[in-house]
Amino acid sequence: MLLLNALLRRSKRAALVSAIVLLGGILLFASIQCARQHSSQQIAFATAEELQSFAEVHGLHCQREPDGFGGVFITDFRVSLQEISAKTCKANCGLTPEWKGILWIKQLRSPAQDAPWRFDPDDNLGGKWRIWGNLVVAGDEEFMDRLEAWYRQEH
Prior knowledge:
- The protein is elongated.
- It folds into two domains: 1-40; 48-154, no CATH class.
- The protein has five helices and five strands; from the N terminus they run H-H-E-E-H-E-H-E-E-H.
- The protein is α+β, with helices and mostly antiparallel strands.
- The N and C termini lie far apart (62 Å).
C-alpha cells in the first residue's frame, strides 16, 4: 500500500510538471507567432499623399515633382527639388551615396477609375525599392527601414 501511494504521488507530480512544461511551450509558441506577425506586418499606403502626411508628422521633408511625373521625394534633411534631381538618378535608387536620406515615392495605380494608369517599377526603376500597398518606394534602404519601424509602432 505504501508503495502504491508513493507511485501515485510521483505520478501526480510528474503529471503536474508535464502540464506546466506543456503550458510553457504553448505560451512560448504563441508569443513567437505574435511577434513574427507584428514584425512582418505589411506596410500599406493607398496614396502618395497618405505617405507624405505620415512622413511630415515625423519631421521629414517632402518635395512633389512637377505635374506629369507624379512622384514625391521624401528626405530626412532640408533640400530643394532641384538639388535632389541633380544628384539622384532613378536608375540607381539607393545604390550611390547621393541617395543617403532620400526616398522617391510613386503610386502604382491611379485612384481614378475613369482615367486609369499603372506604373511598373520593373520597367522604370533600378536599385533598391519596395512596394508599400499602392506605392513603390525607392532609395536609401536604411531610411526605408526607419519609416517601416515607425509605421509598425503606430499600427
